[in-house]
Specification:
mainly beta, seven-stranded antiparallel beta sheet, globular
Length: 118
């Protein structure tokens, strides 16, 4: 996954279980990437150590900054795309809800129950 976030340190803020995936929302992120991350949802398949999908709230690119402070970006093997830009992606609750919904769409898990663990 070419554009995966280069996370140096981060603190887990929330954890979820979705079917055979563990999902963790990370905050207080230090990264070597040029963009600053507010939140990252990382999804790891059971039995794996590495995430296969990331949903990121990151500082908006200058050309989109008039629309909002944060880009909502999806990063996977098949897709890397900014899907929205808005101020409210900086809010943990708003980000978590939308990121989980996006993750379920991308992974084909819309019918699966999302269980909050932390």
């Amino acid at each position: 996954m070419e554009q995966r976030p280069a996370i140096k340190t981060a603190l887990p803020k929330r954890r979820y279980q979705i079917a055979d995936y563990s999902a963790t929302v990370l905050g207080d992120i230090e990264s070597d990437d040029p963009q600053r991350y507010r939140w990252i949802l990382a999804l790891v398949p059971m039995g794996s150590q590495e995430p296969t999908l990331y949903i990121c709230a990151q500082q908006a690119a200058p050309e989109r900054a008039a629309t909002g402070d944060y880009d909502l970006r999806v990063v996977s093997e098949a897709l890397t795309d900014v899907v929205d830009t808005a101020d409210h992606w900086g809010d943990l609750d708003m980000f978590s809800e939308q990121a989980l919904d996006l993750a379920c769409q991308v992974l084909g898990l819309k019918q699966e129950m999302v269980v909050k663990l932390m």
